[in-house]
From TrEMBL:
Cytoplasm as UniProt keyword: no
Keyword entries, A-Z: Membrane, Transferase, Transmembrane, Transmembrane helix
Residue intervals passing through the bilayer: 34-55
InterPro entries xref list: Bact_transf, EPS_sugar_tfrase
Record protein name field: UDP-N-acetylgalactosamine-undecaprenyl-phosphate N-acetylgalactosaminephosphotransferase
Organism of this sequence: Clostridium magnum DSM 2767
First-tier enzyme category under EC: transferase
NCBIfam families with a match to the protein in the record: EPS_sugtrans (TIGR03025)
Length: 222
């Protein structure tokens, strides 16, 4: 067993130790999620209405985009976003796979031709993620937690990568405030698992405030 395997096994044990956190932690985290998502929806509703109108004017297709993602313990759910791409984005994807700039099973390229004009703005400002406040209210996501992956990506995960599925996925986490698209796949997974090791209400509050600071105009958003 090499040092990397020792490190991964140690991390796995630490993550399992944090899996059974106190009932109080989960209760207050859920209260924070409900309160935060309700306040966010009310306060940001004018922005969301304007964005919805802009999307309809800018390109053909629906305002919202729903996509199957993998949540806590491997449970699948429909994650909501404002549509930022053309409606045939999945068909075009096959022609762009050789241009992938992301390591691992993920796909990301700068200047993605599938992204609309409005889509570029709402991605850069993370406004496209706001409909996920509904996922938080439904209990499928949390305000803070590892970003949820596509089923086809999770299918290629190692057992170490799957440790991120121990936590409910979130709107923001370490990856969101530490570089986003500039971070490679393995580092992304390590950051998600680091969150599971360190998670607490205090960590969640710090990440929420840090996210607000980087929310608008993040050059690493894509």
């Amino acid at each position: 067993m090499d040092m990397e395997e020792v490190k991964e096994n140690t991390t796995a044990i630490q993550c399992m130790d944090t899996y059974n956190k106190s009932i109080g932690y989960y209760f207050f985290k859920r209260v924070l999620d409900i309160f935060g998502s309700l306040c966010g929806t009310i306060l940001l509703s004018p922005v969301m209405i304007i964005v919805a109108i802009a999307i309809k004017i800018n390109s053909r297709g629906p305002v919202f985009f729903a996509q199957e993602r993998v949540g806590k313990d491997g449970k699948k759910f429909r994650m909501y976003k404002f549509r930022s791409m053309v409606i045939n984005a999945e068909e075009i994807l096959d022609k762009l796979k050789d241009k992938n700039e992301m390591t691992g099973p993920m796909f990301k390229i700068k200047g993605d031709p599938r992204v609309t004009n409005v889509g570029r703005f709402i991605r850069r400002t993370s406004i496209d993620e706001l409909p996920q406040l509904l996922n938080v209210l439904k209990g499928e996501m949390s305000l803070v937690g590892p970003r949820p992956n596509l089923p086809r990506e999770v299918d290629k995960f190692s057992e170490y990568h799957k440790l991120k599925l121990l936590a409910k996925p979130g709107l923001t986490c370490y990856w969101q405030v530490m570089g986003r698209s500039s971070i490679g796949f393995e580092e992304w997974m390590r950051l998600d698992i680091r969150y599971i090791e360190e998670r607490s209400l205090w960590v969640d509050l710090k990440l929420i405030f840090r996210t607000v600071w980087v929310l608008f105009g993040d050059e690493n958003a894509a």
